[in-house]
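Example protein was shown:

_____
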Amino acid sequence: MKKVLLFGNSGHAKVVRSSAESSGMEVIGYLDRTKIEETDLIYMGDELAISFDALRNHSFFVAIGSNEIRKKLHAFCDQNSIEICLVIDQTAIIAKDVMIERGTLVAPGSILNAGSRISEGVIINSGAIIEHDCNVGAFSHVAPGAILLGGVTIGQECFIGAGAVLKEGITLTSDVTIGAGTVVLHSIHESGTWVGNPAKKIR
């Protein structure tokens, strides 16, 4: 059984742990700036203050919801030769040719259909649907119940809100936030926040 240590131990980390354990991984501890009392996981300390030499036989996962912080911690892991694993819940449905890069969470009930590509450090959250031939950029987050229809491409560090729907074939540039329930009918080539049906930029 692969032993895993988490960066972070927030509410999002609880989902990561549950999904990891469902697939046969053993989450044994976490690294964070502060210790959380209400947990049975071992507190390993601050990642900046410990030695990783004795932990080389473990895998690590960045269990933090912030796209920006996940990206920074992946860079930290690279600088320290730390192995980052993949977490896929056993209830997820994934076509055999889907490509998923390290550090990605595929949460309970999500569906990833044929030909899709999921880059590094992505969150595919509970019940999200990634249809055929989609591409999800590094350190993006597809929230619960969001739907990317066929051939959608989203850039890096995007956030697709809960229940949002992206029309087939469209493209989002990087650093785009799509609000909960938003319907995106056209490609978005400008970073910012978009909400409504149809989507309109608000900032």
User: Anything to note?
Assistant: The longest strand covers residues 26-31. Residues 84 and 137 are 17 Å apart (CA to CA). The radius of gyration is 17 Å.
